[in-house]
Amino acid sequence: MKEKKTSVYLELKKKIKSKEAVITVVGLGYVGLPIALEFVKKGFTVNGFDLDARRVKKLSRGVSYINDIPSREVAKIKKTGKFHVTKNEKVLSSSDVIIICVPTPLRKVKEPDISFILAASRTLRRNLRGGQIIILESTTYPGTTREVILPSLEKSGLKQDKDFYLAFSPERIDPGNLKYDFTNIPKVIGAFSKRGTELGKLVYSNVIKKVVGVESPEAAEVTKLLENTFRIVNIGLVNEFARLCHKLGIDVWEVIEAAKTKPFGFMPFYPGPGIGGHCIPADPMYLSWKARKVGFETKMIDLAAKVNRDVPAHIVERAGELLKARGKKLKGSKIFVLGVTYKKDVNDLRESPALEVIEALKKKKVELRYYDPYIPYLDTAGIKEKATRLTKTMLKKQDLVLIITDHTDVDYKMISRESDLIFDTRDVMKRNKIESKHVVKL
Ligand SMILES: NC(=O)c1ccc[n+]([C@@H]2O[C@H](COP(=O)([O-])OP(=O)(O)OC[C@H]3O[C@@H](n4cnc5c(N)ncnc54)[C@H](O)[C@@H]3O)[C@@H](O)[C@H]2O)c1
Predict the structure, then answer these.
(1) If we measure between CA atoms, which residue out of 303, 226, 321, 318 comes closest to residue 272?
(2) For 242, what's the count of Cα atoms within 13 Å in the CB-facing half-sphere?
(3) Which residues line the pocket of ligand 1, CB cutoff 6 A?
(4) Are residues 249 and 156 part of one domain?
(5) Does 254 reside within a domain?
(6) Are residues 156 and 247 in the same domain?
(7) pLDDT tens digit string along 159-172?
(8) Which residues pair with 136 in a beta bridge?
(9) How many angstroms separate the CA atoms of 129 and 106, rounded?
(10) Residue 1: what pLDDT?
């Protein structure tokens, strides 16, 4: 028995070190695709396994669907002959390293939806042959790796730490971030044994500068949740501060800039139109759900989530007040929403607060148009709208320009010149050094 354990470990170690290890990334989204490409760049043979036929087809033709990754990069990597994209699960059985990057959304009732992880584990079980290391990267509640994936894989008859290794390593990628990408953000990994963690560290050290080992998968799972809880709480705090400062007639952005000059004990977070994306609104809910299971109430998370959830409605209310001050009503007013993705310079609409704002404005019978350089057509959450071109004539006709997302590639000077009233929820005008009496800040 001991001999087999040693041989699986040594064999894998040898294969990873020599780059003979075949890597399969399960789920080629915002997280999985950059990882897959990076391993190919470092000389590994990589399979990209995804169930989405359209994504598989695009990648096979060398076309990217993620705006941080240009198509020419995918095409170049495809030409190496070392990146195989497929819907066929059989690639899993010929892989040595399997990295799972499937979605972990929330159900309508704000509870974890780990159905994608469950499906991926079943597929994996059918193709488990032993001698492999499996690493889950999808953000999830503590205990998922041990309580959900491990039993599912062991139903194959193979045993963890003897026939295969299993670890959890959270992904910290920040789409649109030009300074930090997948390769220079330190990575945390925790397996069930020192050897498992060591093998995982060995895998990632090929593509990431610093890899940090922790004692267990749970420690790695919670690390990610602490990071994103820290963010949701601080964003909630600063969103509350923004509303208070508005009542007091103080510019919250100026206050944050001033507070930022303190060299310790303060970290700036910025208010906005609400939280969005796949991570911040969802991840802390995974933790609070697990906390409830063990009889613990996560008061900070729940309160921050509520404060942040209320922001889009507050934006609509403020828009109504601004129009009222000019003798207009929301009903029938022409409002132009600028930026609809959940954050700047990405093409990701998931959980974007803009959708909630648009929905609420439509209910108020606003004459609504939008522009977003990344979203030519909006077809989500019951909203079907084509983007309107950003022209002087069109801007002049609007009662209000509502800046929701502060994309870089937008002519803010022209917007400021041609618009009568701008409600800037991101302070992007000031950052572009535009001073105008037409601009009202959050
Ligand atoms: N997007 C981010 O910025 C980010 C950052 C850090 C962590 N995460 C976490 O990483 C995970 C993945 O997020 P993402 O943004 O890449 O998601 P995504 O939706 O962009 O991509 C997931 C991919 O997985 C595929 N998929 C789903 N089920 C599958 C299955 N059973 N087998 C094979 N493929 C399957 C989907 O078709 C899709 O292409 C989530 O848990 C998320 O919370 C995301």
Answers:
(1) 318
(2) 26
(3) 26-32, 49-52, 55, 101-104, 116, 119-120, 123, 137-139, 171-173, 175, 278-279
(4) no
(5) yes
(6) no
(7) 999 999 999 999 99
(8) 100, 168
(9) 32
(10) 46
User: Any idea what DSSP says for residue 112?
Assistant: B
**pLDDT confidence of residue 3:** 45
Torsion 79-82-83-88 (CA) sign: positive
- Decide: 357 and 391 in contact? Cβ < 8 Å: no
Say whether both 170 and 316 belong to one domain: no
The DSSP output letter for 248 is H
Ligand 1 centre to CA of 365 (Å) is 36
Residue nearest atom 18 of ligand 1, based on CA coordinates: 29
User: Is the whole model's pTM more than 0.90, yes or no?
Assistant: yes
Cβ(252)–Cβ(242) under 8 Å? yes
Domain count, the chain: 2
Please identify, by atom number, the ligand 1 atom nearest to the C-alpha of residue 138. Answer: 41
What is the distance in A from the centroid of ligand 1 to the CA of 116?
A: 9
Dump pLDDT digits (tens) for 189-233.
999 999 999 999 999 999 999 999 999 999 999 999 999 999 999
Residue 282 CA: nearest ligand 1 atom is 43
Please compute Rg for the chain using Cα positions.
Answer: 24
Q: Which of 98, 233, 279, 440 is catalytic?
A: 279
Domain membership flag for residue 227? no
| Helix/strand/coil for 24 | strand
CATH code where residue 316 lies: 3.40.50.720
**Both 278 and 305 in a single domain?**
yes
pLDDT tens, position by position, 98-146: 999 999 999 988 899 999 999 999 999 999 999 999 999 999 999 999 9
Please count the residues of the chain. Answer: 442
**245 is an active site residue:** no
Within this chain, do residues 204 and 278 fall inside the same structural domain, yes or no? no
Where does a domain end: 215, 249, 270?
215
Atom in ligand 1 nearest the alpha carbon of residue 170: 7
Question: 295 and 195, same structural domain?
Answer: no
Q: What are 286-320's pLDDT values in tens digits?
A: 999 999 999 999 999 999 999 999 999 999 999 99
| Residue 226 forms part of a structural domain | no
Residues 113 and 245 in one domain: no
Classified as helix, coil or strand, 27 is coil
Range of the domain at 327: 232-441
The alpha carbon of residue 336 and the mean position of all alpha carbons in its chain are separated, in whole angstroms, by 26
Last residue of a domain, one of 186, 215, 244: 215
**Rounded CA gap, 356 and 208, in Å?**
37
| pLDDT number for residue 299 | 97
